[in-house]
Amino acid sequence: MLNKYILCLPLVLTACAGPAIVGGISTVGFSAVEDRGLGGVASDQVLRVKINYQLHDQLYQFDSYELTIYKGRVLVTGIANDEATKASALGIVRRVEGVTEVIDGINVKGQDGFSEYARDGWMTTKLKATLYADEDVYAPNYVIRTFDKVIYIFGTAQTPAERDAVIEYASEITGVRRVVNYIQLVK
Known about the structure:
Layout: H1 2-13, H2 17-31, H3 37-55, E1 62-70, E2 73-80, H4 83-95, E3 101-108, H5 114-133, E4 142-147, E5 150-157, H6 160-171, E6 178-185
Parallel strand pairs: 2-3, 5-6
Antiparallel strand pairs: 1-2, 4-5
């Protein structure tokens, strides 16, 4: 019980509690309609905290990094200063209890610039909009992350046809280099 208050203490001390509470409420509301439910989303968020804690000493060796976590699968994207930092970070993530799979999306410094990040953001937004526009796809069940023109799709499809449609939509986006499918079918 005490741990959750310790985690919230920095928010209160920095006067960020209001936005955090509002953001938390929207996350709870959105999570309630996802296939993994509130418990699954909460487990993935706890995993995010554990990983960030373990990576803390290496953060200065990254220009940026981002974690996308879905049912224990962890996609790590970002820019590392060198190959040794990249390998070390991935090793740390693999050793965190609760991680079922680590997906390497890290580039080494000098490989990407601002225009590439903007392009990746556009690809993610385009795919999300397309999924929400399709009545045969339950869009809240999908987590999309694009990095270096590679679209990573996590989620749960109700049918093989839904899964195939999502993958096809991603493949048709202009400039996409590859689509990585982590979509599970409802059992």
